[in-house]
Amino acid sequence: MSNRSSMPQFLLLAFADRRELQLLHFWLFLAISLAALLANGLILSAIACDHHLHTPMGFFLFNLSLTDLGCICTTVPKAMHNSLQNNTTISYMGCAAQLFFFVFFISSEYFLLTIMCYDRYVAICKPLHYGTLLGSRACAHMAAAAWATGFLNALLHTANTFSLPLCQGNALGQFFCEIPAILKLSCSHSGHLREIGLLVLSACLVFCFFIFIVFSYVQIFRAVLRIPSEQGRHKAFSMCLPHLAVVSIFVSTAIFSQLKPPSISSPSLDLVVSVLYSVVPPVLNPLIYSLRNQELKDAIRKMMTGYFSAAITCLFSSAEHSLFNPFLALSAF
After folding, report:
1. How far is CA 260 from CA 68, 110, 272, in A?
2. Are 244 and 292 spatial neighbours (Cβ–Cβ below 8 Å)?
């Protein structure tokens, strides 16, 4: 008998037992998701509309915002729905889809962060070769490789995880469908070890990319320290250090969540760790890359000013048309 027929749904972890706390979690997640949607939406619109941002970094930032939107829309809406409806269930197919899209977006995001680090390395350490190493064709190939690798990684983990026989109940102990939570329900020792092996392989790959990021930033910082201008050094450090901090939090919490030993596992710890690597980065990334990029801030400000001016013009023109059109004036009586 297949897993789907024997287990039609899973039980997700409730944030709290009290109704008041459940509603509090709903409003908190609503604020977080709206902030992420607004910030990433502004970045996407600004980059698409302003030709000054049609650069390699702008192109990768556009793709990063797409992954951030995907991550936040994959896990948070279901958690909000469950908190609002006082429900904890998710269907078998819904859980499989959520796991696939989450792994897809989170993997693609990490690969894009690595590529963006390489972009900064070339821009600062090899500026004369920037146009050659990061031309439009090279950028398109790197972005396509990031999305394709994320897709293959998600497909491999999802297919392997949901092919395992599940006989340990249906309570996941997590607020979204996560691989370690599903593995706890498996009764196949060999299949469990196979997925653990895939997770270890993915963690090694992630760690290798992280070593590349750290090495790149070491070279960047060495080049920055040779800049004679103190203002220039401060600008470079303020742009690179937050990125390195977000990547460090993302990598450490993701690896810890996937490979932590069962002896130190607890519902509260699992919840905090999963929120740190699944919800926090999509909110922090737009702040880091928009607030520290003057061109992007100018483009967003220009776009918002244009929309506001157009709305004011439309409002006043409608008012004038209503006041001076005699037919509309007669219709008012």
Report:
1. 25, 20, 14
2. no
pLDDT 10s digits, 82-114 = 888 888 888 889 999 999 999 999 999 989 989
Q: Rounded to an integer, what distance in angstroms lies between the CA atom of residue 164 and that of residue 182? A: 9
Q: Say how far apart CA 110 and CA 106 lie, in whole Å.
A: 6
Q: Phi and psi at residue 89, in whole multiples of 5°?
A: -95, 155
State whether residue 187 is helix, strand or coil: coil
Q: List, as one string, the DSSP characters of 259-320.
A: H--GGG--HHHHHHHHHHHHTHHHHHHHHHHHHT-HHHHHHHHHHHHHHHHHHHHHHHHHHH
What is the residue whose two structure tokens read 């958690």? 79
pTM of the predicted model over 0.85: no
What does the block give as tokens for 223?
Answer: 């080049």
Taking residues 247-270, report their average pLDDT: 69
What CA–CA distance (Å, rounded) separates 297 from 293?
6
- What crossing angle do the helices spanning 280-291 and 56-85 adopt, rounded to 10°? 140
Q: At CA 33, angle to CA 182 and CA 139, rounded to 5? A: 85
Residues 248 and 250: their CA atoms lie apart, in Å, by 5
